[in-house]
Amino acid sequence: MSDVLQKYLPEHAVQPCFELIKNNHVHLKIVNERVTRHGDYRKDTNGYHQITVNANLNKYRFLITLIHEIAHLVAFEKYGRYIKPHGDEWKLTFRQLMLPYIRPEIFPNQLLPLLARHFKNPKASSDTDATLSLALKQYDAKETDKNYIFEIPYGAYFRIHNGRVFKKIALRVKRYECIELQTGRIFLFQPNAEVELVTN
Questions:
Q1: CA dist., res. 26 & res. 19, Å (int)
Q2: Is the pLDDT of residue 15 over 90?
Q3: Tell me: the pLDDT tens digits for 119-139?
Q4: Taking the CB of residue 142, how many other CB atoms lie within 10 A of it?
Q5: H or E element at residue 14
Q6: How is residue 153 annotated by DSSP?
Q7: Which residues are within 8 A (CB) of 31 and not within 5 positions of it... i.e. 6 or more apart?
């Protein structure tokens, strides 16, 4: 298992992650990309803890996602099954589990202050922290046909992962207001949403 983890994690995170997986009896599955989530945790009917993480994540996002999901397991075991999935108990657990990894041997220096800030009050998804998410995306394998929504001009048309087409119209506080062409409904997008520019 630690051989497999070397492919997906920063070098100095492999051994401590392997210990976490082993000590918590985690069945880890590395799966094909799911657009709606980076990973998930469930306890199956036999009492096994199954965690899945997307194979396409860069090593820093993979690490954060893995610890995020292990935090669900540890929080449920410690505080009971009726806590909120991303409530205070989970936040505390996630912060405690993540702390040993927020150091320069594991993360690039430019990410450290962003991670420190994020983990004061971690969100259900690191994607909702636009600054951290954009910084993490710099380490992704490059895809040429994708743009961030903040990069495309107002009035431009774009397509999202499920084929729906929108027009970018305005900035509202920190998110972009866009109109869906088919329905005329207004949607708000995070600045770091990845979209495909429609040219015709």
A1: 10
A2: yes
A3: 999 988 888 888 898 889 888
A4: 6
A5: helix 14-23
A6: P
A7: 52, 53, 54, 55
